[in-house]
TrEMBL record:
Gene name for this UniProt entry: LOC113713081
Domain Zinc-ribbon: residue ranges: 23-111
InterPro entries xrefs: Double_zinc_ribbon, Zinc_ribbon_15
Source organism superkingdom: Eukaryota
Organism: Coffea arabica
Identification of the protein by name: Zinc-ribbon 15 domain-containing protein
Amino acid sequence: MFFFFIGGVNQQVRQVLKSGVGRCIGCGSRSDLVEYEKVLNLFFIPIKRWPGKEPVMYCDDCKLFFPQSISPPPPPPSVEETRLPSVTDVLKCHYCSREVDADFRFCPFCGSAL
């Protein structure tokens, strides 16, 4: 006598608590805070369901469940943050607050180092 078990346990979203609150750790797309439940399937028929312990993050694109404690990667820096000052920028003297060309190493008005 042989017995084959064709089934398994998987997770399913029960309720979306907050939509788009984080980023997926797998693909980087938006993820939702959800309540989930575990489902026991036998021959692809749900037999038993029981709720998960605490809310988790869920990515709808790659179908990944992950805990809230894993923080998503930080967003990339904006263009303004990555821009380096150019040589043609106008400088201001720290002492007299006058505008000085970037070519000067000393303020021509008060003589202080720039």
